[in-house]
Amino acid sequence: MTLELPDLPYSHDALSDKGMSKETLEFHHDIHHKAYVDNGNKLLSGTEWENKSLEEIIKGTYDKSQIAQNGIFNNVSQHWNHKEFWNMMGPNNSTMPSELENALTDQFGSIEDFKNKFADAGATQFGSGWCWLVKDTDGSLKITKTENGVNPICFDQTALLGCDVWEHSYYIDFRNKRPAYLTNFLDNLVNWEYVAAKL
Q1: Buried-most residue among 90, 95, 122, 184 (CB within 10 A)?
Q2: pTM of this prediction?
Q3: Superfamily name and number for 21-87
Q4: Which string of b and e fits 43-82 if b means at least 16 CB within 10 Å?
Q5: What distance in Å separates the CA atoms of residue 66 and residue 52, rounded to the nearest whole number?
Q6: In the chain, domain spans
Q7: Residue 1 binned pLDDT confidence (cut-offs 50, 70, 90)
Q8: What one-character-per-residue DSSP string does 131-165 give?
Q9: Contact 163, 191 (CB under 8 A)
Q10: What is the pLDDT of residues 29-48, one digit of tens each?
Q11: Contact yes or no for 84/162 (Cβ under 8 A)
């Protein structure tokens, strides 16, 4: 398949009063995400993967024995990660649906405990990567973290919520304060209705 850069589901300045500036989205979406799309298409061309779905490419090119993944995986997986990331955020004051609130409380004790554990996973991911709320194969909810572009598809998990902790996600607005970026993400940016729909 040909990778295509999706439009943001909101304007570049829609999240500015919630802690993610227009400049960040211009760099992150228009430059970084576009680079994954452009590089991914070049690498896919003429290979066995060029007509496969994103999920098939991610699963088929992921090598669990290697920390440094191949170029096709890195770019396609990061494309998928970012497509989800834009939709996991929104400009509206999102209210957590009761179904999701109950599931998180049952699994983690309270919403506050969930947020603390999620933020800790992101803050302690060494170097570039992601932190995730996933639905595991047994139906349970878990908080995970992955290096670089690795995502829950690699482990047959369903990604409900993901936060990008590569420096380009937060450095313009938060400099080196990754924990503050994660707290702001959870308190002000998450589209909880989108997360609940994936549950």
Answers
A1: 122
A2: 0.97
A3: Fe,Mn superoxide dismutase (SOD) domain (1.10.287.990)
A4: bbeeeebeebebeebbbebbeeeeeebeebbbbbbbbbbb
A5: 23
A6: 21-87, 98-198
A7: confident
A8: EEEEE-TTS-EEEEEEETT--GGGGT-EEEEEEE-
A9: no
A10: 999 999 999 999 999 999 99
A11: yes
β-strands 141-147, 158-164 pairing:
unpaired
DSSP 52: S
- Tokens 């098939």: give the residue: 56
User: Which architecture characterizes domain 98-198 according to CATH?
Assistant: 3-Layer(bab) Sandwich (3.55)
Amino acid, res. 64: K
- Per the CB < 8 A criterion, the answer to whether 126 and 148 are in contact is no
- DSSP 8-state class, residue 129: E
How far apart, in whole angstroms, are the C-alpha atoms of residue 61 and residue 87?
Answer: 25
| Backbone dihedral angles phi then psi of residue 143, each to the nearest 5 degrees | -105, 130
Say which residue the tokens 């991914």 belong to: 40
